[in-house]
Amino acid sequence: MDPVCVVAHLPPGLDPGTVGLELVRRLFLARQGSWPDGTPAHPVNLPAASAIRDQFSREALGQGVRELAAYWNDRYFHGTRPPPTVASTEAMRLFLARTEGSVGYLPEADTRSLPEGVQRLFCLPGPS
Amino acid sequence: MLPPLRHLLVALLAVPMLARPSSGQLPAPPVVAGSSFEFGAYGAITVTSPEHPEEVERPAISELVAALMAWGRISGRASYLVEVDMAKQTTATWTGRESDERLAPVRMYLEFAAADLLRVRAGRFLTPFGRWNEYHAEPLTWTPTRPLTTYRPFAKSLTGIMLAGEASPGGIETGYALFWSPFPAWNEAFQEAEESAFGQVLGGRIASEVHANLTLGLSLAVVQREVPEVESDQESEPGEVEDHGRPLVGADIAWSGANLDLSAESSFLPTGRGLPREAGIYLQGAFRLWSQVWAVGRAEYYEPVDGRPVRTGYAGLTIRESRHFVVKLGRQFSRHPSEKLPGGWFLSLSSLF
Fold it and tell me: Could you give the domains of chain B?
């Protein structure tokens, strides 16, 4: 399986070097809602059944999609849903291009050419 | 003969490797809404065949809950959440008697997120003491009964102000909540019958995900409670607010993996003005048998109930197909079963949607 890479449309002036795996994890677990400069962050997922999403979930969030269900059920009770989903990797590219402050993930092969304003931050190491 | 200590240490260190890292829950999680209005609800029905010295009662509905929730984003940094219990009949009250509230605001607050490390919440919210209380909805818990430790010593909700936030110092996810309810009238207006009620309270909780699948929490509050009907003596009249604050201390721990979930909480409230001390601790474990079927067990010690310590246990099965459908069937054991704390079988159906 291709490595999964984190891609984002960062706010202007935000240093990509300040965005690491820990920050991405907090954004996708809704534990943090903004970038280090205070601007709102907009994480976006692929569908729950997507193998790419499950790979990202395991490698970046520490658990697969299914295993995070209990976490999101608890957070739902407190008014939080998981990040919104888009239907495909192409939809992901479109969302990132149109939404400043957004962050998502794509297979490495899909990150070799990205829309304007979207950049690849880092790739996940893959299963050990 | 015990194995060498080094073998035990290696085994203990290996235990976390049996489970995948999980995401623990920190105090007072924020509302993260994508729009100005979102809607949810949950409901539960519990049928009990209680046993106590007086008699073995026929199965009957012991718990009936229906709650509506609404939440949303007011601006980039402001949000709100409301939860109203449309109907409630429950035995999880201070005195064990049923509370027939038809319309009760459990939560109703505004929140402003100045930063991820500082959110200000004002209104009525779940008391961030211990771990269970903030996630007490029936579809989220493992058992159809609630440990005494998680509701006897403090009010489940309070009306006041809270500061809360999260950070990850040194890569350790940590959250805190500081809460203050200075006026008894704020709580009396929403007090549910026969519940532990705050007069005034000042407290806080801090919790950290010290390992990828291990969360530790500490809670501390200075509480002036409304004297309950039971357990009081001539020094304090029931319904009066205690004239001195007492320190309430609690600790909690949770360890969660793909097939195993362990948790424990404790609380301690010293004596005051003729009112007895209160102390409790429970240990609970859930083990996945197959697919979504889990075996669940719990043991608890709490004092006092009717002037003496009680020991209760629970054993049963929980099926968590999804949050939309949760079934729990088990038996509660009580060394001194009473009408207030019966033993017997419990069957619960609940849903969060």
Answer: 41-352 (2.40.160.10)
Inter-chain touch B173–A61, beta carbons under 8 Å: no
Q: Is residue A46 part of a domain?
A: yes
- How many Cβ atoms from other residues are within 10 Å of residue B38's Cβ? 18
pLDDT in tens, A17-33: 999 998 999 899 988 88
Q: What is the ipTM of this complex?
A: 0.83
Number of H helices, E strands in chain B: 2, 17
The CATH number assigned to the domain holding A13 equals 3.40.190.10
Distance from CA of B164 to the nearest CA of A (A): 12
Start-to-end Cα distance in chain B: 53
> Contact A71/B23, CB-based, under 8 Å?
yes
Is residue A128 in some structural domain?
A: no
Over residues B213-250, the pLDDT tens digits come to 899 999 999 998 876 665 544 455 566 677 788 999 99
Residue (of B89, B34, B132, B238) closest to A99 by Cα position: B34
Is B81 in contact with A62 (Cβ distance < 8 A)?
no
pTM: 0.86
Q: Residue A104 sits in which domain range?
A: 4-123
Instruction: Work out how many domains chain A is built from and give that number.
Output: 1
